[in-house]
Task: inverse folding
DNA sequence: GAACAAAACGTTTGCGCAAACGTTTTTCTC
DNA sequence: GAGAAAAACGTTTGCGCAAACGTTTTGTTC
């Protein structure tokens, strides 16, 4: 039924070793013999079985990527960029979507690390490092992406969260805004924590009164920003900072629908998805923080392959920098420096 | 180093067969023995090796999905929905992104069908069925998604393309529009062909003059709609039909930037991504065609698992229906009926 | 308590391939 | 033309597991 390497060997009149070496270029084979082998392969329509190969070599040529939300543009773009890098290097990509659910993350990590992939990229939805760490077999190649833990146990690739938010608050304060609200993502995530802490510190440094009600948390899922906004608007904000692209779009739409005009009625600073439609329309009325998603994806791909190929490689922590685009200087882009 | 089934067997004082049967529930094992086995598994931290298992059984519990553009919201949403269905049924999903490139599609299909996955979902970028067909090993479970071929060889899941466009033209014509332009996707795709042919037929049926320049093709990638629009606007259109969500967003933004107002200056009908931001903002100024992306994804998942579990199952062709939302009746939704 | 069945487990094989280990043939050297 | 080296290929094993095939033990019947 299935054509195997020994069928090829038989037809070509050589040994299976020769066929194997011919295919994989792992030993010298005379060109006449190669010829015979390739002819037999073509005649039989032989394709090496990936399962058997993986089993034999222990290499699957597959990387897993645990993502909190595939349909979120931020992650979709990152997946694209990761896939691009991996496929260019002979690897395939398995996606697992946790939908910000810890149990699903556990299930998926366990499944994938049990011999299904060579390495794992994880944008974890977990807060507790112990719980995450317990899932990873000793020595298994893992790279944390976008969301990290407070240990040096795994390599990681993320973007700076503190500086852009700190800068945002300062700019708003300098503009005369006093009551600055902020909409963060899930409170348990490292990215959210860093951003909120930057907000707090900047507020203090700018001598602006802190007020717990000015800090709201959404879950970066659909319609989560509206509730946050309602609560912020009730308190009468001069400005709002949004920590996530999807919620930024919601914010803009919601304000638009309420007849609140950006920059005239309220100041807005936000993390945005670079090519999101709302961003294109409103880029000139707000400060935008644009994360280098594609670089993030590529760096993640690089790091995981590096670890897969050399599991002893030292832990590596890469922090990329977001672009900050103030609306007052359209066209001008500046890089925050951490 | 690695804990295998025989390590477990040894520690539990049973045979490997018993361990295997205990894990997989494939033979009666007394509860005391089960106890011993599970205890040994826990003590050693044993996890069955997925590679070996796949190799042995021939089942990988993985489905491949060949996608033309991951970052496109339409496909990202579909991936999400496919993944949801598959993971609920114990399968993982491998993504391959072709970026609308036929060579990449060939490479990926070949790779995945060579023992890496149990079945394949394909939204093909190819026009030539022979070329596609040549890539698929005999009997390999394949389901075509969104883009189909003119044969009954593979099962498929797609949405109706003809009816919504036909209806669009009729509505525009009834409104008095004469010069109706259309922006289609890649000319080689079945979806594009059906939509354009619906346009032609409707134009003829409505006694509107055909004009080749009114038909423009974009590639559904970034910025492709602008060129089409420039050419259409040059000809002075009363109305424009856009056949794809991403290009719809571009169109709306571009018209907005040019100061052309929807419904006052020009009529717009478009396929849109349901939760896209621009759609949310402009839904009341245009006719929208909304494809049932999630149902599409789920149906695709259902079909491919059905084929994987029974390769002899009859060919199945599912055609889903898009929702048509006329802007004149906000809130009212109607279903086109093919 | 012989004969037989059912319960509960063990022994062994082979999936397809890569690669360690081995053999033969050719070529070269003096 | 004997001996050694290099070239070119062959034989065999085992990766970890599932399952086909076999065996032992424990009832059960008359």
Result:
């Amino acid at each position: 039924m299935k054509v195997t390497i020994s069928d090829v060997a038989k037809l070509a009149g050589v040994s299976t070793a020769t066929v194997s070496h011919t295919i994989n270029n792992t030993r010298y084979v005379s060109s006449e013999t190669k010829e015979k082998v390739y002819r037999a392969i073509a005649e039989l329509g032989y394709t090496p079985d990936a399962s058997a190969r993986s089993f034999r070599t222990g290499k699957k040529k597959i990387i897993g990527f645990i993502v909190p939300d595939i349909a979120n543009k931020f992650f979709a773009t990152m997946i694209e960029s990761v896939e691009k890098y991996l496929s260019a290097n002979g690897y395939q990509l398995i996606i697992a979507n946790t939908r910000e659910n810890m149990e699903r993350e556990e299930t998926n990590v366990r499944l994938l690390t049990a011999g299904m992939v060579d390495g794992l990229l994880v944008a974890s939805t977990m807060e507790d490092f112990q719980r995450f760490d317990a899932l990873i077999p000793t020595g298994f190649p893992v790279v944390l992406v976008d969301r990290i833990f407070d240990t040096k146990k795994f390599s990681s690739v993320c973007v700076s969260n503190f500086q852009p938010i700190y800068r945002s608050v300062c700019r708003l304060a300098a503009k005369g805004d006093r009551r600055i609200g902020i909409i963060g993502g899930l409170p348990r995530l490292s990215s959210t924590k860093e951003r909120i802490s930057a907000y707090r510190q900047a507020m203090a440094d700018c001598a602006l009164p802190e007020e717990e009600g000015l800090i709201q948390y959404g879950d970066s899922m659909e319609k989560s920003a509206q509730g946050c906004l309602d609560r912020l608007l009730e308190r009468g904000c001069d400005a709002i900072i949004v920590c996530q692209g999807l919620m930024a779009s919601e914010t803009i739409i919601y304000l638009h629908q309420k007849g609140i005009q950006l920059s005239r009625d309220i100041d807005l600073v936000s993390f945005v998805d670079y090519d999101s439609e709302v961003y294109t329309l409103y880029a000139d009325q707000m400060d935008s923080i644009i994360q280098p998603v594609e670089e993030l994806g590529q760096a993640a791909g690089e790091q995981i392959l590096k670890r897969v190929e050399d599991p002893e490689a030292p832990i590596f922590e890469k922090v990329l920098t977001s672009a900050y685009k103030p609306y007052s200087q359209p066209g001008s882009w500046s890089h925050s420096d951490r």
User: Anything to note?
Assistant: The domain at 59-160+294-322+334-338 of chain B is CATH 3.40.50.2300 (Rossmann fold). The radius of gyration of chain B is 25 Å.
